[in-house]
User: Which sequence fits this backbone?
């Protein structure tokens, strides 16, 4: 799956799961998820981690929560996780 497709799918998932009053085109790829970015909190972080696991089949462990910094870091994580699982399957 292309990076743009993963990004678009993740942003849509984020908006839907967290009931954000945004349109996907309003969210830049480098938007921080917390603080001055989207202003999400720790409860949202858990929901995002669960959504990534459910939707993209990539487990986010407690020590990997830093991947939730921005849209780009999440997409990077998803791509790396998928690449790892493909290479492990071979």
Assistant:
């Amino acid at each position: 799956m292309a990076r743009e497709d993963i990004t678009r799918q993740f942003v849509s998932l984020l908006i839907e799961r967290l009931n954000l009053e945004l349109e996907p085109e309003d969210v830049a790829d480098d938007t921080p998820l917390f603080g001055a970015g989207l202003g999400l909190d720790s409860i949202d972080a858990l929901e995002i981690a669960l959504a990534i696991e459910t939707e993209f089949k990539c487990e986010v462990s407690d020590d990997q929560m830093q991947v939730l910094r921005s849209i780009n870091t999440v997409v990077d994580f998803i791509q790396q996780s998928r690449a790892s699982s493909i290479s492990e399957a071979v």
Summary: The chain has three helices and no strands. The CA atoms of residues 24 and 84 lie 28 Å apart. Residues 71-89 form the longest helix (19 residues).
